[in-house]
Amino acid sequence: MDERHLIVNVTSDASQYAWGGILYNPSGPPLEARDIWREDVRDKPIAVKEAIALVNTLKAGKSLLSNCVRGRPRGQPNAYPGLGKTGGQE
Questions:
Q1: Any idea where the domains of the chain sit in the sequence?
Q2: From the CB of residue 78, how many other CB atoms can be counted at a distance below 10 Å?
Q3: pLDDT digits (tens, 9 = 90+) for 16-73
Q4: For the sheet containing 18-24, what is the strand order?
Q5: What are 68's strand-pairing partners?
Q6: CA quadruple 15, 48, 22, 31: dihedral positive or negative?
Q7: Residue 75: predicted pLDDT
Q8: pTM of the shown model
């Protein structure tokens, strides 16, 4: 399997009732994802909702991001040692 590197921009946002995000794909149209919060998430602090919104956006773009090296471009120092080549924990 050939290794490929993909740099994407991600934005996400959360409100009291819903979340949304956009994954900007350099080789195609942006992927947009949004949904209302499940009842068990509605009462969480906004900072937690913001983090969950980011995770949900990345999960929505999973097929776009598959077969990509995550972490750092080849030859660049790794600013996030926990990510490495595997992207950290799933």
A1: 1-90
A2: 11
A3: 999 999 998 777 788 899 999 999 999 999 999 999 999 999 898 876 666 555 554 5
A4: 9-14, 18-24, 31-36
A5: 4
A6: negative
A7: 53
A8: 0.66
E runs forming strands in 1-90 = 9-14, 18-24, 31-36
Please tell me the number of Cα atoms within 13 Å of 8 on its side-chain side.
Answer: 26
Cα atoms in the Cβ-side hemisphere of radius 13 Å centred on 40:
1
* 23 DSSP β-pair partners: 10, 31
Amino acid identity, residue 46? Answer: I
What pLDDT is recorded for position 78?
Answer: 43
* CATH code, 1-90: 3.10.20.370
Half-sphere exposure of 31 (CA within 13 A, CB side): 17
**In this predicted structure, what is the pLDDT of residue 74?**
52
